[in-house]
Design goal:
- The protein is an alpha/beta fold.
- It has a single domain, classed as Rossmann fold (3-Layer(aba) Sandwich), CATH 3.40.50.300.
- It is built from ten helices and nine strands.
- The chain is globular, with a radius of gyration of 20 Å.
- It starts with 10 loop residues before the first helix and ends with a helix.
- 32% of the residues are buried.
- Bound molecules: guanosine-5'-triphosphate and magnesium ion (MG).
- Magnesium ion (MG) binds next to α4.
């Protein structure tokens, strides 16, 4: 199972290995995981040491843009005097794969070549500290297959269950993209998966809908004359394409009068513009900070 962290071997590792060319990614994984863990992500146990800082879960299908959104947010927050640090004890100390992910995070964030899909065992927790060093939130970054693998199977892996049932306050950020997937039937299945998670989470948890890759709708007249996405157009389209995902958060009666029709935040987001090179890499040009400030305000 090759993955993007394999070239991020730390110095100690490369000295121990001597000639790096003789060590394959498979060897590295074997050193890190038991056979059982390699076969089964449910066998990887997690620890959430900080129970007081809210957890933000980026929930999205494969390639929905979770990793790039996290990278973009890290760049934004670090340029606004926040600190972003991986939660090193989230996975066991013996887990060298995770150690490498943590030490390689910033290289990935500040690289203008995109990292590619998140490997199936590469889930991590990062902590955001404000300019005076107080923790604001922890963000879970995980592979989309663990949220939606294209099937109607409604199970979630152990570590997602551990996060869902932890006492931390939580914000669930549901990634949805207009026009995503092969057809409407695929979007229906993903909508079902979102609804099944909504049925499991605590009523105290907060919910944000992130209309991702909004930039792709720029040419379709979904932006206003100031260059900002017209959220109501996105909202109506997403409501049609992902049936039922807003239903649980509909206000009624007095609450509706006081707080409006829905009890969630929705934002349009774009991490950037992506161009493929002839040799198959993907170059990332950052989109405006405006999208990040929208998401950060929604999370806070
Ligand atoms: N146009 C556009 N494309 C995007 C945006 N964000 C991501 N993409 C594209 O979507 C691809 C997948 O993005 P990732 O962030 O790796 O997706 P992911 O949800 O982490 O995927 P998995 O790790 O496989 O679950 C990128 O390589 C880009 O080509 C965006 O804001 N706008
Ligand atoms: Mg990813």
């Amino acid at each position: 199972m090759a993955n993007k962290f394999d070239n991020l071997v730390d110095q100690d590792d490369s000295q121990k290995q001597g000639n790096r060319n003789t060590t394959t990614p498979q060897d590295v994984e074997k050193e890190t995981y038991t056979e059982e863990e390699l076969r089964d992500v449910n066998a990887i146990s997690v620890t959430i040491p900080d129970k007081n800082t809210p957890i933000v879960v980026f929930f999205g299908s494969p390639a929905s843009g979770k990793t790039l959104a996290l990278m973009r947010m890290i760049r934004y927050l670090e340029s606004h005097d926040h600190q972003v640090i991986p939660e090193e004890v989230f996975r066991p100390k013996t887990d060298r794969h995770y150690t490498r992910m943590c030490s390689g995070l910033k290289d990935m964030v500040y690289n203008n070549i995109t990292p590619g899909g998140t490997d199936i065992i590469s889930f991590m927790l990062v902590k955001i500290l404000n300019p005076i060093g107080q923790p604001i939130c922890q963000i879970l970054e995980a592979p989309g297959e663990h949220y939606f693998d294209g099937s109607p199977n409604l199970d979630f892996p152990t570590y997602i269950n551990a996060i869902r049932t932890s006492p931390n306050r939580k914000v669930w950020v549901f990634f949805v993209e207009q026009g995503w997937g092969d057809d409407q039937s695929e979007r229906n299945l993903y909508a079902q998966k979102i609804c099944s998670m909504q049925g499991l989470i605590s009523p105290n948890d907060k919910v944000v809908f992130l209309f991702n890759k909004a930039d792709r709708q720029r040419a379709r007249g979904q932006y206003d004359k100031n260059g900002k996405p017209r959220k109501e157009l996105f909202f109506n389209q997403i409501k049609r394409e992902y049936p039922g995902i807003f239903t649980k958060y509909q206000n009624t009666g007095l609450t509706k009068l006081l707080y409006g029709e829905y009890n969630f935040k929705a934002i349009c987001f774009s991490s950037g513009i992506f161009n493929k090179t002839n040799d198959g890499r993907e170059v990332w040009t950052l989109e405006s900070d405006w999208y990040c400030s929208e998401l950060w305000n929604a999370i806070k």
